[in-house]
Amino acid sequence: MSVRAIRGATTVIENSRESILKDTEKLLLAMQKANNINTKDIICIFFSMTSDLNAAFPAEAARQLGWCEVPLFDMQEIPVPGSLSKCIRIMIQINCQKSQSEVKHCYLRGALVLRKDLIKD
């Protein structure tokens, strides 16, 4: 069994608790579906948000999904001038049989610009 990291990101419309939790949940579920993740295989999840977001902890969305045994960690992104705003990023580390090339990273909404190489025409 290998340890793999799955990346994802999304943007929110506004700095509100509702917006942060709703869009974080959508991203978590998209990452879970795309990679057929069983929560028992999750080692941990890292969440980061840009400095313009502070209305909620994105990890709360995972708890609301019932992922209560998964270690979660929230942090703030480095505020690089000109970088994407209102962005939430997630990295899920899992135990799995997938090769690195089989892992499917998920970028939603305005975060699609972060990984143009993953966009399928």
Quick recap:
The protein is of the alpha/beta class and 121 residues long. Helix content is 21%, strand content 29%. The chain starts with a strand and ends in a 14-residue tail after the last strand.
Radius of gyration: 14 Å
Number of E strands:
5
Number of DSSP helices?
2
- Our estimate of the beta-strand percent is 25-35%
Low-confidence stretches: none
Oligomerization: single chain
Portion in helices: 10-25%
Structural class determined from secondary elements:
alpha/beta
How far apart the termini lie comes to 33 Å
Shape: globular
SSE pattern, N- to C-terminal = EHEHEEE
Describe the biggest sheet?
5 strands, mixed
Q: Mean pLDDT, nearest integer?
A: 94
Strand order within the widest beta sheet: 3-2-4-1-5
Question: What does it look like?
Answer:
The chain is an alpha/beta fold. It is built from two helices and five strands; from the N terminus they run βαβαβββ. It has helices spanning 17-35, 59-64, and strands at residues 2-11, 42-49, 72-76, 87-96, 106-107. The protein has a five-stranded mixed sheet with strand order 3-2-4-1-5, covered by helices on one side. The protein is globular and about 40 Å long. The chain starts with a strand and ends in a 14-residue tail after the last strand. The relative contact order is 0.32.
